[in-house]
Amino acid sequence: MVNFRALHPLVRVRILQLNSRQVAEAVRGGDLEAGLVALPIDDRSLDIGPVEWTAEAVYFSRRPVHRPVSIHELADAELILPDAQWGDMDPTRHQLLALTQNAGVSVRPIVEVESPALAFGPG
Asked: Domain segments of the chain: what residues?
């Protein structure tokens, strides 16, 4: 964000923590000019385009992982999943559900929160 602000000092930025469905509704309703979402979403009356993304997964871990994790390892992990209010209706969780079902495994989070940072206390 610091680099973006240095390059574009006149642009005002507001970062909200919303579910992809909420972002789509806010853009559709005119409350936001643009937003980043995980597909699939209801894209009626929205211009959807690809965004260059360099990470395939973003996660918090107390133990560093230095290689890609298989879907089977992910299913065995003690997961903390965000967007508790939306559950499997969340587009990111929907993708995760599809991947695990195709692999014949399931993901059962040990904690569900609105924000992953909420699950980590001090230390």
From this structure: 1-46, 55-123
